[in-house]
Write a structure and sequence with these properties.
Elements: E1 7-10, E2 14-20, H1 23-28, E3 36-38, H2 46-53, E4 57-61, H3 63-73, E5 80-87, H4 90-101, E6 105-111, E7 117-123, E8 126-132, H5 141-145, H6 147-155, E9 158-162, H7 170-182, E10 186-190, H8 195-199, H9 201-210, E11 213-217, H10 218-227, H11 235-243, E12 255-260, E13 263-269, E14 272-276, H12 292-304, H13 310-324
Parallel strand pairs: 1-5, 1-9, 2-7, 3-8, 5-6, 9-10, 10-11, 11-12
Antiparallel strand pairs: 2-4, 7-8, 12-13, 13-14
Helix pairs in contact: 3-12, 7-9, 12-13
Length: 343
């Protein structure tokens, strides 16, 4: 693979404020373990309370940014580039530096709003995410259309759009999707959170029609099944139904990949289901599951963009997720790494 910046992602860059918290904090703010929500007014005091009452860790976040950092970890230098919107502030500088440290090129739109943030509340091996988008919600399609940005779109061969971006700019997502279709490039989409299928059904449906690869976890898959009236909660059945949804680019069948926590990952492709056990791990070795799904997608894409098989891509996804859950936050070891598949 000789092309630079072969994989381009877009979504919502956020500064994660992460802490191990007491379950009472979730109850106080009406939060459910493992949920991912946008902050309402009742959640606004949460960030200051976490910083005041808990030892917090600051991490360069945003799901797609985490994924691209993970992909870059296993790819040659200058393979990944990421778009999103940040503020003109110290937090944006921190995000850019952390991404650069991981080899990810960032092309941020600069907003007058503060950089977005995400409270990551860790209780045991569960994590709950509360996001205040702020500048991330201010992405402008005009940024995408600038020659310096669009030239990167034209150079890329694979695109990764996080579902969270559908809360921000469906037109920008569709501009990338339509380019992918017109040029027969590969578009991957992540469902991101149950509320995306629940409340952003139409823009998600528009994007799924364009998607060659759809990622999600079991909760997101069930939410999608409900939104589409599939009438099932069986993960394999949902995967098959999503794979069979109408597709604009008919030159290749859609691939659907659903993770399921500690249970096997499920894929649907060409009408066939395959399951893949995860890498076994003792609970005592799990430090933090925040970003495990992002890491899986990063590992998967690192092989997929190099033309490797789905089996190899899933194995790499499991490998990177396994590394990340043994670390604090969605962080990757500083050394460059390669992945070797063994059947």
């Amino acid at each position: 693979m000789t092309s630079e910046f072969i994989l381009l992602g877009i979504e919502n860059p956020l500064l994660d404020i992460s802490a191990v918290v007491k379950p009472e904090l979730l109850k106080k703010y009406n939060l459910k373990p493992n949920d991912a929500i946008l902050a309402a007014d009742e959640h606004k005091p949460l960030y200051a309370e976490m910083i005041k009452d808990y030892p917090v860790q600051y991490i360069a976040g945003g799901a797609a940014q985490n994924t691209l950092r993970g992909a870059q970890w296993l790819l040659p230098e200058k393979s990944t580039v990421y778009f999103g919107s940040v503020g003109k502030d110290h937090e944006a500088e921190v995000l850019a530096k952390m991404a650069a440290k991981d080899g990810l090129r960032t092309e941020y739109h600069i907003s007058d709003l503060p950089t977005g943030k995400c409270a990551v509340l860790i209780t045991g091996i569960q994590r709950t995410l509360v996001t205040d988008l702020l500048a991330a919600n201010d992405y402008k399609i005009a940024h995408l259309e600038k020659p310096e940005a669009w030239s990167l779109v034209e150079a890329a061969k694979f695109f990764y759009i996080g579902g969270y971006f559908l809360t921000v700019s469906p037109p920008a997502a569709m501009k990338i999707a339509n380019h992918a279709i017109a040029t027969n490039k590969v578009l991957a989409l992540n469902l991101s959170a149950p509320f995306i299928p629940q409340f952003f059904t139409q823009p998600l449906d528009d994007l799924i029609k364009c998607a060659d690869v759809v990622f999600g976890n079991e909760a997101e898959a069930e939410a999608l099944s409900t939104a589409y009236n599939f009438g099932t909660t069986d993960l394999a059945e949902i995967a098959l139904k999503v794979a069979a949804l109408p597709k604009t680019n008919t030159s290749r069948p859609r691939l659907v990949v659903f993770t399921h926590g500690a249970k096997p990952t499920v894929s649907a492709h060409n009408g066939a289901i395959k399951t893949y056990p995860i890498i076994p791990i003792d609970v005592k070795d799990i430090v933090d599951t925040n970003g495990a799904g992002d890491a899986f997608c990063g590992g998967f894409l690192s092989q997929f963009v190099q033309g490797r098989s789905v089996d190899e891509a899933v194995a790499a996804g499991h490998y990177v997720a396994n590394v990340v859950i043994q670390r604090s936050g969605p962080t990757y070891p500083s050394h460059a790494h390669t992945f070797k598949f063994s059947a």
